[in-house]
Amino acid sequence: MDTSEFGRFSDPALMILASLAGGEKHGYAMMEDIQAMTGVRLGPGTLYGALSRLEQDGLIEALPADERRRPYKLTTQGAVFLRQYLASLKKIVSLGLKRLEA
Amino acid sequence: MIKKLRPWLTRLYPRAWRDRYAPEFDALLEQCLHSPLDVVDVFLGAIDAHLQLLNGENVTWRMMNMLNKLRTTILIVFAAYIGFIIAGLSLVGLADDSPMIPLMKTNPSLAAAWTIIQAGAVVALLAIVIGGTPLVLTIFRRVLTSQRRDLGLLLVPVFSFLAIMLYLGFIFLVGSGRIQIPGVLPAVQPGNFPLGNRLMLAGFALVFVLGAIASTLAVWKVVSNTDIEQETFHTLGRPFTVKIHSFAFIPAVIASISMLIMLIATLAWFGLTFSALPQVFTGSFGPWQTSTQIWFIGIVALMTVCTIAAFFGLARGRSARNSG
Question: How far is A68 from chain B (nearest CA, A)?
Fold first, then answer.
């Protein structure tokens, strides 16, 4: 699986996975966390567009609703995917930085 | 201003999506809907959800969408059938105590058309009862266990029926002279139909029609709230599972075809009656000595609308059933 599957939601999907790597959260908590983490404020439509795809792909899992708000958590598959994806990004980042410094 | 848009924004999403995400999405919008850009973002998200559904990307939503379509089909046919019953009872009211009934005894074609209407009514009723039984049993089971908030809605048909029965009892008491109301005669004669009697019977028609509409809407709402496709029943100690909406589809087709046949037979019956007795068409043989023409137009129009609605519902549900 790669993030191109998520189309215009690939970056938001990655941000959601990274946010949930820090623990289970509901939609609004994810929005705030992502904004604090990246400076990007995800719109509600974008957030749930990515969220629904991540859930469908089994990368995140819905937990029982707390009143109307439903928290989500990263699944094992989601954690593996995020780890692999961040590792590949890390390689690109370090290689790019090395080339810039050379 | 933007906050006021919140309920409408969630409605932009497909039903299947809303069934899964609406409460939590609405809770999110309550907290984060601040600017027109958020509205645009939700709008784009809704378009994306529709496209996802159309492309069949999301299997869960697709299944829910098919179930919704099938359920809507069953409900449309049921509502159309109720409308058709009202038209059918009006037809009986029109024919009753009119020269049309004696005419049928001497006119075999007219009698045959009437028999077809009656047979169609029986077949449609049986189809609705057979197709609806698993659905009704499932709903009762759910309402008595996990869906108790809908208990009040299920009482609407019961109270409607009681209201109709009470009104009939009232008419009976007036007719038997046990209740006397100024301006209302216990028995009316041709050419002497006081305004009081007309109002009393118009009141009955109003109670009947309102009761039928309220009951249909209540049943529609309860069925819409029941997100179950299959249910297991136990008969003679053996369990069997029924896909309740798919099961109801064939009876819905039979009921719709019966409605079409009854409509054609009704048109034939009217045509034969009016050609044999033209004075009936121009006269006032309708209930409460009202114009026959108005009743003819009203009955045929209602039957036509209901039949078209039933076939529209079937066309909508056919694709869902085939792919389900």
Answer: 5
